[in-house]
């Protein structure tokens, strides 16, 4: 099919996620036909730098020969079999690999298929674990303001981004919310409600979907200590931060924190196939042991839980961290990214703040009227210049694949700077729409 025909059919039959369908047809979004490394190609052969790692998940680039080969080899064995009542080699080997890589104490791996389900599972595990320990009053969860843990009802319940979540409030359970980065606020909440709390859930170090909000150094460690002091579980959602994004394998490592439950997804398969895991301590796992008639079983499992192709892709992805020394090669690129942003993006009139942690970047544009959708217009301008970036409201996000070449990284920043300048030129020049010092842009898809 030709591009025009595909675009027409897209408008006729598809309903895109986080997308106002009414405006969709006017945008002529690229239809991606293939990819190579950090580059996406559309059906007309136009090339784009994948500036958001295909929604924060690509790690070693597209079409990596080792991951492609691992999936093909698994395809010759079995594409899918269930984990309910059966097991398979890639799931077993991957679980051991994850156990060995994860922060100390996380010894059990429970698979699912998206970040949201990994969180949903952690929440259910924490709840059930306490009930089975004879503390059924511990049913509540403490989460951070502006948190994002996914789109299913349980993960939305522990989320805190009004724009995404307030619409669904009547369907959600009630969580306790504290300001992110404020250990004293958490201490007060735990002092008051500790006996009802099952777990505290955090995105460690960076609140991604809130616009790359950074937590102060020491905060995560303080959260761990407060959880210990008040005897509640700590759930770390490493869905966005895991697998090298912050410069270490897991964000928890920066502060030597071991959570009781850890959620991973996105980069787990290198961005190839849907797979997630909830890692648990042996103590949590053992709390579910008992006779069948005791009903201590964890009653949860999806059809594609631990899919063999996805597990094979994940094993290859994790092996590449060693064979390509991914984290070591990443360090100078983190510095380069910081330097390029400081040189090209920071001086722009429209830019209020740049927040970077490793290969996670949020560029906050200064106080534009949300109705102008300035962040969105920046992404359209970037696209015309050859890069895919995606905004969170008026925060422009950069999350390139860890394997991106330095030259391409430079070009990504150059394109982003040009796109910001272009998209905000009118607004700042006439003084009408843009001004410095505005409030933080509310995230919007
Ligand atoms: N948790 C965090 C921290 C995330 O950033 C995301 C997605 O962006 C999720 C959970 C949800 O993951 P998924 O989109 O795979 O359901």
TrEMBL record:
Keywords associated with the record: Aminotransferase, Biotin biosynthesis, Cytoplasm, Pyridoxal phosphate, S-adenosyl-L-methionine, Transferase
Residues noted as binding substrate in the record, renumbered to the chain: 148, 266, 301, 390
Family affiliation: Belongs to the class-III pyridoxal-phosphate-dependent aminotransferase family. BioA subfamily.
Enzyme nomenclature, EC number: 2.6.1.62
Binding-site residues, pyridoxal 5'-phosphate: 115-116, 237, 302-303
Annotated PROSITE patterns: AA_TRANSFER_CLASS_3
Requisite cofactors: pyridoxal 5'-phosphate
Segments of skewed composition (Gly residues): 429-440
Catalytic function, reaction form: (8S)-8-amino-7-oxononanoate + S-adenosyl-L-methionine = S-adenosyl-4-methylsulfanyl-2-oxobutanoate + (7R,8S)-7,8-diammoniononanoate
Organism annotation: Conexibacter arvalis
Family matches, as InterPro entries: Aminotrans_3, Aminotrans_3_PPA_site, BioA, PyrdxlP-dep_Trfase, PyrdxlP-dep_Trfase_major, PyrdxlP-dep_Trfase_small
The protein, known as: Adenosylmethionine-8-amino-7-oxononanoate aminotransferase
Intracellular or extracellular location(s): Cytoplasm
Record PTM N6-(pyridoxal phosphate)lysine, positions in chain: 266
The protein's role, per its UniProt record: Catalyzes the transfer of the alpha-amino group from S-adenosyl-L-methionine (SAM) to 7-keto-8-aminopelargonic acid (KAPA) to form 7,8-diaminopelargonic acid (DAPA). It is the only aminotransferase known to utilize SAM as an amino donor.
Gene Ontology terms describing biological process: biotin biosynthetic process
Enzyme class: transferase
UniProt keyword annotation of Cytoplasm present: yes
GO molecular function: adenosylmethionine-8-amino-7-oxononanoate transaminase activity; pyridoxal phosphate binding
Pathway assigned to this chain's UniProt record: Cofactor biosynthesis; biotin biosynthesis; 7,8-diaminononanoate from 8-amino-7-oxononanoate (SAM route): step 1/1
């Amino acid at each position: 099919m030709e591009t025009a025909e595909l675009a027409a059919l897209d408008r006729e039959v598809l309903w895109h996620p986080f997308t106002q369908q009414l405006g969709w047809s006017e945008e002529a979004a690229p239809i991606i036909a293939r990819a190579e490394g950090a580059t996406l190609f559309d059906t007309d052969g136009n090339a784009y730098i994948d500036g958001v790692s295909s929604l924060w998940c690509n790690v070693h680039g597209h079409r990596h020969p080792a991951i492609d080969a691992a999936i093909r080899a698994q395809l010759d064995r079995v594409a899918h079999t269930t984990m309910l009542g059966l097991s398979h080699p890639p799931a077993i080997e991957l679980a051991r690999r994850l156990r060995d890589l994860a922060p100390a104490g996380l010894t059990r791996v429970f698979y699912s298929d998206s970040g949201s389900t990994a969180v949903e599972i952690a929440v259910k595990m924490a709840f059930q674990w306490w009930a089975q320990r004879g503390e059924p009053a511990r049913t509540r969860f403490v989460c951070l303001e502006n948190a994002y843990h996914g789109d299913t009802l349980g993960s939305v319940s522990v989320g805190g981004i009004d724009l995404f979540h307030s619409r669904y409030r009547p369907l959600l359970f009630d969580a306790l919310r504290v300001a992110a980065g404020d250990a004293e606020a958490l201490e007060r909440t735990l002092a008051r409600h500790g006996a009802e709390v099952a777990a505290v859930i955090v995105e460690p170090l960076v609140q991604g979907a809130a616009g790359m909000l950074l937590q102060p150094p020491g905060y995560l460690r303080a959260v761990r200590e407060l959880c210990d002091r008040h005897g509640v579980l700590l759930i770390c959602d490493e869905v966005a931060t895991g697998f090298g994004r912050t410069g270490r394998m897991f964000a928890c490592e920066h502060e030597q924190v071991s959570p009781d439950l850890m959620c991973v997804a996105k980069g787990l398969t290198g961005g190839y196939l849907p797979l997630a895991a909830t890692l648990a301590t042996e103590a949590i796992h053992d709390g579910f042991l008992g006779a069948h008639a005791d009903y201590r079983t964890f009653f949860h499992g999806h059809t594609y839980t631990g899919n063999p192709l996805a597990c094979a892709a994940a094993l290859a992805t994790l092996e590449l961290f060693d064979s390509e020394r991914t984290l070591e090669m990443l360090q100078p690129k983190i510095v380069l990214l910081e330097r390029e942003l400081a040189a090209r993006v920071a001086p722009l009139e429209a830019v209020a703040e740049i927040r970077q942690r490793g290969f996670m970047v949020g560029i906050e544009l200064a106080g534009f009227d949300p109705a102008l959708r300035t962040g969105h217009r920046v992404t359209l301008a970037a696209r015309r210049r050859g890069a895919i970036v995606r905004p969170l409201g008026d925060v422009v996000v950069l999350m390139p694949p860890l394997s991106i070449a330095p030259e391409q990284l430079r070009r990504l920043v150059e394109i982003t700077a040009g796109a910001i300048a272009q998209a905000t030129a009118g607004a700042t020049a006439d003084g009408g729409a843009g001004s410095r010092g505005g409030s933080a842009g509310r995230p919007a898809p």
